Amino acid sequence: MLFFSFFKTFIGKTVTVELKNDVIIRGKVHSVDQYLNIKLEDIEILNIESCPQLMTLKNSFIRGSVIRYIQVYAIDVDCEMLQEAARREYKELKKVAK
Amino acid sequence: MAGNVEQPLDLILLALDEEILVKLRGDRELRGKLQAFDQHMNLVLSDVEETALKVEVDNETGEELIKSVKRKMPMLFVRGDGVILVAPPLRTA
């Protein structure tokens, strides 16, 4: 749930998603779900030469499992809070496992 | 410090806020500071340098050249299904 909450804070912000087939898409996050499927708006394909057929897309739903990376702007991330949330989440996970 | 390491993921917890090396599927490696992780090994890294190994075939000789391409990213989410290993960085670079 940590990364689901993390990406919910990016709704309305611009991110760059790199897919496992090397397509790179920049767009504004419209929504995200628990599988980290992501819907992007106002998209732009950054390496259009490798996939010209995608040029006309405006919005896209991306299945979480085909994502390799998501680049975000560092200014949108509170590192201290994120680390604390990761520690808390891990503690919860261990508690449930016992 | 290492006294309470019982499970593999405990080591990742200790690496929070530290520089790590991540080996990924598709001949890629990342170095960066670990900001977050979960049980799937989804990660968030900051000040990341990616090294991707690419094979290029020389047009004249037909030789295969292995080229490493580096790029930097300030803040990066990495999906866990691509992660092969997480380690402290090698002190060579």
UniProtKB/TrEMBL annotation, chain A:
This is Sm domain-containing protein. GO terms for molecular function: RNA binding. SUPFAM superfamilies: Sm-like ribonucleoproteins (SSF50182). It is found in: Nucleus. It comes from Galdieria yellowstonensis. Belongs to the snRNP Sm proteins family. Keywords: mRNA processing, mRNA splicing, Nucleus, Ribonucleoprotein, RNA-binding, Spliceosome. The keyword RNA-binding applies. One of its GO terms (cellular component) is Lsm1-7-Pat1 complex. GO terms for biological process: mRNA splicing, via spliceosome. Its main location: nucleus. It comes from the Eukaryota. InterPro entries: LSM_dom_sf, Sm, Sm_dom_euk/arc, U6_snRNA_Lsm2. CDD domains: LSm2. Residues 2-76 form the Sm domain.
UniProtKB/TrEMBL annotation, chain B:
InterPro entries: Lsm3 (IPR034105), LSM_dom_sf (IPR010920), Sm (IPR047575), Sm-like_LSM3 (IPR040002), Sm_dom_euk/arc (IPR001163). GO terms for cellular component: Lsm2-8 complex; spliceosomal complex. GO terms for molecular function: RNA binding. Belongs to the snRNP Sm proteins family. Keywords: mRNA processing, mRNA splicing, Nucleus, Ribonucleoprotein, RNA-binding, Spliceosome. The keyword Nucleus applies. This is Sm domain-containing protein. Pfam families: LSM. One of its GO terms (biological process) is mRNA splicing, via spliceosome. The keyword Ribonucleoprotein applies. It comes from Galdieria yellowstonensis. Residues 7-92 form the Sm domain. It is found in: Nucleus.
